[in-house]
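Weekly sync, protein design subgroup
Attendees: M.S., D.O., the rotation student, P.L. (late)

Item 1: inverse folding check
M.S. brought a backbone from last month's batch and wanted to see whether the design step gives back something sensible before we order anything. D.O. pointed out we never logged the input encoding, so this time it goes straight into the notes. Structure tokens as presented (299 positions):
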């Protein structure tokens, strides 16, 4: 019924055109597909939007990831740049001293060494400072090299401390510093002797340098479960909470130590930290200004 009425409708619309006789096998059907097309278009739009969204998310993620991955490299490069600037600056000072004193010497060619001794002494100071700085820089680079390390051997801590303190005795006497050791004489530690001695020397040298006149220094060694705690404490001005986070940075000197500007580079503790790391240990610091400062090596 319906087919017949559809055919009749066609004949009415297309009557001016010669149409073949419509039979149930060759009739045409027109279907309204607008809704489907709209749906397909909507789907296309959604897919396109999702595609751009994905692209933006991927770009953002890769951007964030690249920042995260390159940050340590950037930090290391910045650290190295700062290190080179500081080292060059520290080298420039003794070089300027030597150059200016040499020029003064040249002005008075007829004078004797005796009369020019002041300028020569200044030059000697510059040479000593340069050689001390290059030794420190060399020590730092040597610690960073994994090869060239001494062997782990059982060492007697008491005798190592006695050995190291010997050359510091005269400076302690000059400042009238009381020194005491609190440890068992037979205490043995399995470590690298040279590196460990260098570490103790740096900390003891600081202790002597920064202890006040008539002050005190104490070394105590305690074995706790599997770790050995070696603490070096001293009296004196100490380190403020503001300075504490930076004292292990290379070339960092606390303001109060300006009095020691001629004998300091601010490299000692950064070397000590590197050595402790290479010995798989930890270096901790505690300071109560004007009371006591303690550096503890945990191995
Ligand atoms: N035992 C200590 N008591 C008080 N202050 C200390 C002590 N050890 C270190 N400091 C402070 O920490 C700073 C950094 O010490 P570090 O040994 O790195 O450098 P430095 O002694 O100034 O120079 P360098 O060791 O290169 O000659 C010092 O300038 C000093 O102010
Ligand atoms: Mg020092």
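Designed sequence read out in the meeting:
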């Amino acid at each position: 019924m319906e087919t017949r009425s559809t055919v009749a409708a066609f004949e009415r619309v297309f009557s001016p055109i010669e149409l073949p006789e419509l039979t149930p096998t060759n009739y045409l059907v027109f279907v309204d597909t607008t809704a489907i097309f709209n749906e397909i278009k909507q789907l296309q739009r959604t897919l396109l939007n999702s595609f751009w969204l994905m692209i933006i998310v991927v770009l953002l993620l890769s951007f964030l990831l690249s920042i995260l991955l390159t940050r340590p490299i950037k930090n290391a490069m910045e650290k190295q740049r700062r290190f080179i600037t500081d080292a060059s600056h520290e080298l420039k000072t003794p070089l300027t001293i030597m150059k200016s004193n040499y020029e003064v010497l040249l002005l008075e060619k007829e004078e004797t060494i005796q009369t020019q001794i002041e300028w020569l002494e200044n030059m000697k100071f510059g040479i000593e400072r340069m050689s001390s700085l290059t030794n420190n820089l060399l020590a730092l680079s040597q610690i960073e090299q994994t090869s060239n390390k001494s062997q782990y051997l059982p060492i007697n801590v008491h005798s190592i401390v006695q050995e190291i303190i010997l050359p510091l005795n005269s400076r302690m006497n000059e400042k009238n510093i009381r020194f005491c050791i609190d440890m068992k004489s037979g205490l043995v530690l399995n470590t690298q002797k040279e590196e460990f001695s260098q570490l103790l020397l740096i900390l003891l040298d600081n202790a002597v340098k920064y202890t006040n006149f008539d002050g005190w220094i104490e070394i105590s060694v305690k074995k706790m479960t599997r770790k050995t705690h070696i603490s070096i404490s001293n009296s004196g001005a100490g380190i403020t909470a503001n300075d504490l986070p930076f004292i292990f940075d290379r070339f960092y000197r606390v303001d109060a130590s300006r009095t020691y500007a001629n004998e300091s580079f601010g490299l000692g503790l950064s070397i000590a930290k590197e050595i402790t790391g290479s010995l798989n240990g930890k270096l901790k610091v505690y300071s109560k200004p004007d009371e006591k400062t303690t550096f503890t090596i945990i191995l």
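Discussion: The CA atoms of residues 94 and 128 lie 9 Å apart. Strands lie at 152-156, 178-182, 188-192, 216-224, 227-234, 282-288, 292-298.
Action: P.L. to compare against the previous round before Friday.
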